[in-house]
């Protein structure tokens, strides 16, 4: 793998395939076709500019007409109008079934904004039981942050192969063709489809030059290509709808590439978790792995935040997440273990949604435990929760409000708090 967050990489699967010193020579070695993939406007500021040059067996332009695609029937897209906005706190059990390939199993929980306007996100889960084989997907509507939760993934992309397992994340940039195969025969996980600005590392401010997700731990694949003339079905998502066409060869035919736009993998266990060594735990923004900014500084289109294993040493402090109401909307998932604000009901593969200003925090059982705890240093182990936090309120998809995975008694976890006893 090639290391470094959005580094400028050069990689060739065949020696001599990559032009030296220029992008588009009159004749590329071996008759390869040069193609630029732009992830930002040509004129985006240099520090935000993302593009790569791909050298391939055939140009991607060589494909038949797209026709509407009938699969992936539970996939929804912004603008989200299937259900009215809903201020309720919502929580879902983990999906029980695995059916279809990665693409066809994508099931939308909630979303905001719209791909046409390039803002907002959608949250989906996949629960797949077959390889995509000779089917490839590309998403013109946004980049896809994939969070495997159960089972490994082998993701073939135009840029090379990425192997991922639970506790990894993979980000596939907008427009990049990819196929997901399942080494374990089945897999489940979460997807954040980001219609907005591409994910980047958060600024570190007074933390300094190091910490949180360190740039060198991000890995892009080395060039690897399939040389087959067997047909592939290529499905794309475009302005909310799915379309399919046939390509008479593998879309993964890139022999060499260079640039700073590529799919990447990150191992969440490498996150340098920072927390209090005195009292009161900081806001969870201290756990931000990646951020997609909106036009308003510090107010994200989406922050991807994790809750990794960590030491709790705070003195005289209520240690679990405190009660709060947030202008930002929070969609949470759990990759493994327990989450310290919930003593039950939030299982790995489950999900919760706390929209703008909805009151939430520890359930009654977790609260009681926390106020009675002997505050020794404690290591929270074997856990990994995460949050997609957005300035845009999420609207649930129709399925998400109808499924029996939706817990009807979620409000009940905040029942039973005793009234404070104020003297006088
Ligand atoms: O709601 C949650 O569980 C996530 C969360 C954790 C925390 O420590 C503070 C705020 C917050 O939204
Ligand atoms: Fe919260």
Automatic annotation (TrEMBL):
InterPro entries: HgmA_C, HgmA_N, Homogentis_dOase
Keyword hit for Oxidoreductase: yes
A Pfam family annotated for this UniProt entry: HgmA_N
Record-annotated Homogentisate 1,2-dioxygenase C-terminal domain positions: 270-419
Record-annotated Homogentisate 1,2-dioxygenase N-terminal domain positions: 2-268
Enzyme class, broadest EC rank: oxidoreductase
Protein name per UniProt: Homogentisate 1,2-dioxygenase
């Amino acid at each position: 793998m090639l290391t470094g967050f959005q580094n400028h990489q050069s990689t060739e699967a065949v020696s001599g395939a990559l032009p030296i010193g220029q992008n588009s020579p009159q004749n590329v070695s071996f008759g390869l076709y040069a193609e630029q993939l732009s992830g930002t406007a040509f004129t985006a500021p240099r520090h935000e500019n993302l593009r790569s040059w791909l050298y391939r067996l055939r140009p991607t332009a060589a494909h038949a007409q797209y026709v509407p695609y009938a699969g992936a029937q539970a996939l929804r897209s912004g603008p989200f109008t299937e259900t009215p906005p809903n201020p309720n706190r919502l929580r879902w059990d983990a999906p029980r079934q695995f059916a279809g390939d990665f693409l066809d199993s994508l099931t939308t929980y909630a979303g905001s904004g719209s791909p046409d306007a390039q803002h907002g996100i959608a949250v989906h889960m996949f629960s797949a039981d077959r390889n995509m084989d000779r089917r490839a997907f590309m998403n013109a509507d946004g980049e896809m942050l994939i969070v495997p939760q159960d089972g490994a993934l082998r993701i073939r992309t135009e840029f090379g192969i990425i192997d991922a397992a639970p506790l990894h994340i993979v980000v596939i940039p907008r427009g990049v063709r990819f196929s997901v195969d399942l080494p374990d025969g089945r897999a489940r996980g979460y997807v954040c489809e980001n219609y907005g600005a591409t994910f980047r590392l958060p600024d570190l401010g007074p933390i300094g030059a190091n910490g949180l997700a360190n740039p060198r731990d991000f890995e892009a694949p080395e060039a690897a290509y399939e040389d087959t003339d067997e047909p592939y079905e290529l499905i794309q998502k475009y302005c909310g709808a799915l379309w399919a066409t046939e390509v008479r060869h593998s879309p993964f035919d890139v022999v060499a590439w260079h640039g700073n736009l590529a799919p990447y993998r990150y191992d969440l266990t490498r996150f340098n978790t920072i927390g209090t060594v005195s009292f009161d735990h900081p806001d969870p923004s201290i756990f931000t792995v990646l951020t997609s900014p909106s036009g308003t500084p510090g107010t994200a289109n989406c922050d991807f935040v994790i809750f990794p294993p960590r030491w709790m040493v705070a003195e005289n402090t209520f240690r679990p997440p405190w009660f709060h109401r947030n202008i930002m909307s929070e969609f949470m998932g759990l990759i493994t273990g327990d989450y310290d604000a919930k003593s039950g009901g939030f299982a790995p593969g489950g999900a919760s949604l706390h929209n703008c200003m909805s009151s939430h925090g520890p359930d009654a059982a977790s609260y009681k435990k926390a106020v009675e705890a002997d505050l020794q240093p404690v290591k929270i182990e074997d856990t990994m929760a995460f949050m997609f936090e957005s300035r845009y309120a999420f609207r649930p998809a129709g399925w998400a409000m109808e499924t029996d995975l939706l817990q009807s008694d979620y409000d009940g976890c905040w029942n039973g708090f005793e009234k404070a006893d104020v003297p006088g």
